[in-house]
Specification:
The chain is of the alpha/beta class. It has helices at 5-9, 27-33, 46-49, 61-74, 93-107, 121-128, 145-148, 158-173, 186-195, 216-219, 237-253; strands at 19-23, 39-42, 79-83, 111-113, 134-139, 178-182, 200-203, 211-214. The termini are far apart. The protein binds 3-methyl-2-oxobutanoic acid. 3-methyl-2-oxobutanoic acid binds next to β6.
Length: 270
């Protein structure tokens, strides 16, 4: 049975088992992650990780629908969340509904995620009152990289922390069933988690959160280059892949591959 928003909501508080969440963009990866995860997010980070774009701003509706559908079709356990891309929901609550409804209809996902604090509360209310479960996203909001002045931890001073706390409360009050809290100091992670009665899923927001999420390619060691402080690499998958590709290249060049085990023979005549 696939997990529902009720299952996710039941993981609230330090007495429960933390939620395990990862991003997934493709069917083969989603199949591998699904048995181990409560929630899989088809994040707009797909634009950077899969398409090599400089930011998440290059994700669009068609990209998210393609990947959302691939992930939903390949899985049966985790709740599937699809990120609403930049420009698909900030215009008006009606625009947000139309695009979120497309996600629900065309990808078979179980909920949508959108970035924003108090300013998005009216939109979140509009969606949740019309049958669309919403996961919020406050703190570091990658879609606001240009107004934030880069990918920096947020709310590290008192006014900044207070704003993020208020944002989280506003999104909860609007009906979100859970919230992603990204790139904040541990003290604020604790404060937000204690203040909300919905699960807070942290990414660089401390162990105090009700769950954790990472980009799968980051924690698997596939992503190249500098990674944020909060990324722990659980495997050096890139080295493994590189060595496999090198062996293949050496075998092909030396005519060791394909040998007879990998070669069709003509059928014997009767
Ligand atoms: O798009 C994304 O990858 C995210 C993170 C929370 C993982 O929003």
């Amino acid at each position: 049975m696939r997990k529902t928003i009720k299952d996710i909501a039941s993981h609230k508080g330090s007495h429960t088992v933390p939620l395990v969440c990862l991003t997934a963009y493709t069917a083969p990866m989603a199949r591998l992650l699904d048995p181990h995860c409560d929630l899989l997010l088809v994040g707009d980070s797909v634009a950077m990780v899969v398409y090599g774009e400089p930011s998440t701003l290059q994700a669009d509706m068609e990209m998210m629908i393609r990947h959302g559908r691939a992930v939903a079709n390949a899985t049966q356990n985790a709740l599937i969340a699809v990120d609403m891309p930049f420009g698909s929901y900030q215009g008006s609550r009606e625009q947000a509904f139309e695009n979120a409804a497309r996600f629900m209809r065309e990808t078979n996902c179980g909920c949508v995620k959108l970035e924003g604090g108090a300013e998005m509360a009216e939109t979140v209310l509009y969606l949740t009152q019309r049958g669309i479960p919403v996961c919020g996203h406050v703190g570091l909001q990658p879609q606001s990289v240009n107004t934030m002045g880069g990918f920096k931890a947020q709310g590290r001073d008192e006014p900044g922390a207070q704003k993020i706390l208020n944002d989280a409360k506003a999104i909860e009050a609007a009906g979100a069933f859970c919230i992603v809290l990204e790139g904040v100091a541990e003290t604020l992670g604790v404060q937000v988690t204690n203040a909300l009665s919905i699960p807070v899923i942290g990414i660089g927001a401390s162990a105090a959160c009700d769950g954790q999420i990472l980009v799968a390619e980051d924690m698997l060691g596939i992503t190249q280059g500098k990674k944020p402080k909060f990324v722990k690499e659980y495997a050096d998958t890139a080295s493994l892949m590189e060595s496999a590709v090198k062996q293949y290249a050496d075998d092909v060049r030396a005519r060791r591959f394909p040998d007879t085990a990998f070669t069709y023979q003509a059928l014997k005549q009767a």
